[in-house]
Each structure stands twice: as C-alpha cells, then as structure tokens.
Amino acid sequence: MPVIVDKIADALHLQSHKSTFDSNVTVIFVLGGPGAGKGTQCARLVEDFAFCHLSAGDLLRAEQHREGSEYGQLIQTCIKEGTIVPMEVTVKLLEKAMTATLEEHKSGDGWADGRGRFLIDGFPRKMDQAEMFEHDVGKATAVLFFTTTQEVMLERLLERGKTSGREDDNVESIKKRFNTYKDQTMPVIKHYEKLGKVIEIDSSVSIEEVHQKTKSAVANLLSGSTA
Ligand code: UP5
Ligand code: MG
Fold first, then answer.
1. Does the N-terminal peptide bond of residue 34 adopt cis geometry, omega within 30 degrees of 0?
2. Which ligand is nearest to the CA of 37?
3. What sign has the CA pseudo-torsion 68, 96, 138, 83?
4. Sign (positive/negative) of CA torsion 214, 201, 94, 141?
5. Is the CB of 163 inside a 6 Å radius of any atom of ligand 1?
6. In sequence order, what DSSP letters do the residues of 149-162 get, joined into one string?
7. Is 39 part of any known ligand binding site?
C-alpha cells in the first residue's frame, strides 16, 4: 500500500524532502582561495569531461549587471568588500542555471538520459550555503580543493587586476577576500574533509601541471560513479 502510506505521510508532512536534482546529476564543488586557479582549471575540465562549469562569482556578476535586478547594488557592495552575498540569491542563480542546462539536453559523456555533470566553482563559501544547496538542490559528489600560498594568490590577482576590470582585484578587496575565505570557507572544506569528499590539489605549480593532476583525480572519481 505505498500510495496510501505516501498520502498519510504527506498529510502529516512526514514526506521526506526531495531536492531538485537526484543522483543522476553529478555535482563537484570547486573551492580554494581567491586566485588559487579555480576558474582556470574548471575551463580545462570542461574540455576533458564535458562538464557544465558554473562559477557562482560569474553568475553574481552577471546578475549585478542585469537590467532590472533588485540585487545589483547588494552584489556590488558584497563583492567589493569581499563578503558573501545572502545565500538565497546565489543558490537560486545556481539552481536556475543548472535547470536551464539540463533542459538544453546537452550531448556528450555524462549527459544521456537526464544525467548531467556540473562543476560549481567558488561555492559553497559558507556552511549555511552548503546545507541549503544540498537540501534544496542536490548532493555534492566531491570537492576539488586548490591550495597555494597567500603570496602566490596575491601576486596572481594583482597581475590579473591590470586587465580584468574586476572591482575586487585590488589590494584592499583582496585582503578582505582572504579573511572571508579563512573565517567562513575553510570550515566548509573541513566539513567535507570529515566526509572524505575532498580532493586536495597543490595549485602552486604551472597551469599545465595542475591540470594534469586534476584531470587524473577527476577521471578516477567519474569512473567510480554512474555519470
Ligand atoms: N593562474 C591560475 N592558475 C595559475 C597557475 N597554476 N600558475 C600561474 N598563474 C595561474 O586565476 C587567477 C589568476 O591566476 C588568473 O590570471 C590565472 O591566469 C592565473 P583564476 O583561475 O581566475 O582563479 P580563481 O580561483 O577562479 O580566482 P577568483 O578571483 O575567481 O576567486 P574568488 O573565489 O575570489 O572569486 P569568485 O568570482 O568566486 O567570487 C568573487 C566574489 O563573489 C566573492 O568574494 C564574494 O563576494 C562573491 N561570492 C558570493 O558572495 N557567494 C558565492 O557563492 C560566490 C562568490
Ligand atoms: Mg574564479
């Protein structure tokens, strides 16, 4: 009598919560400090494994500049101050982008029969975001964690700042971004480490060397999953 049981559970609000995406969808969070190389490596992984790459920062910057957005000012202030935009905004943008991608019915490895594989770059930056995403949107398969020193990250960001036009590629904003990363994002990484989901990669070396290490770690991961 499963239908009756379902109806009773529904009436009593006992039905277990369903997230938007099920286990057909592989989600890899990509974390690491500002300038660690998250975006650079994600772009390479898209070529290797047909991932959809969604950078939370890029989605927020696009929303900031979208005409009519009610969040433009808020996002601009948070990015400049290196603080975290309220999670509801970011989680909704990610969910919308994931839904749109799945509706496109992409072809290639990992996309047949409603399956999909996503690199979620620069997210979750805070424990509450991780909880909200996993509850409402979908479960994380793994976390790619790029590590290097603060000196290396600072140098990369200042160099990029000469041409990036990013409002947060300046010394004042970068210092604030480092602090937010240490205080809010490191606990997220520790949480996933306890769950055995973190793949740590030293990103101090050349882009190509980091790519080779990352590619082989992701190949291992995907060969162990159905996607
Ligand atoms: N570079 C990369 N790898 C290299 C290597 N191995 N050797 C030499 N050079 C290398 O790389 C940075 C620069 O370094 C580039 O010039 C690259 O060529 C070179 P990149 O790949 O862009 O690094 P990345 O880690 O992606 O750095 P990014 O600046 O994007 O990281 P952040 O995490 O700071 O930025 P993000 O865009 O994710 O977030 C920005 C802001 O948005 C946050 O501070 C926050 O205010 C807000 N935000 C939220 O509020 N919520 C979110 O969920 C996400 C963001
Ligand atoms: Mg980036």
1. no
2. 1
3. negative
4. positive
5. no
6. -HHHHHHHHHHHHH
7. yes
Residue 123 phi, psi (nearest 5): -155, 145
- Is the C-beta atom of 89 inside 6 A of ligand 1? no
Alpha helices in the chain (DSSP H): 2-11, 38-49, 56-65, 72-81, 87-103, 127-136, 150-164, 171-180, 186-194, 207-223
Task: Check: pTM over 0.85? Answer yes or no.
Answer: yes
Which of 63, 57, 64, 66 lies closest to 84, judged by CA? Answer: 57
Residue 117 Cα to ligand 1 middle (Å): 21
Ligand 1 centroid from CA 12, angstroms: 45
Q: Which residues, other chains included, contact 82 with Cβ-Cβ below 8 Å and sequence gap of 6+?
A: 168, 173, 174, 175, 176, 177, 178, 179, 180
Homologous superfamily (CATH) of 2-219 is: P-loop containing nucleotide triphosphate hydrolases (3.40.50.300)
CA-nearest residue, atom 16 of ligand 1: 160
Atom of ligand 1 nearest to the CA of 42: 21
| Residues β-bridged to residue 27 | 118
CB within 5 A of ion ligand 2: which residues?
38-39
- The domain limits of the chain are 2-219
The verdict on the CB of residue 33 being under 6 Å from ligand 1 is no
Q: Mean pLDDT per 10-residue run, the chain (227 residues)? A: 58 66 93 98 97 98 97 98 98 97 89 94 97 96 98 98 97 98 98 98 98 98 74
Q: Which of 64, 65, 66, 44 is nearest to 53 (CA)?
A: 44
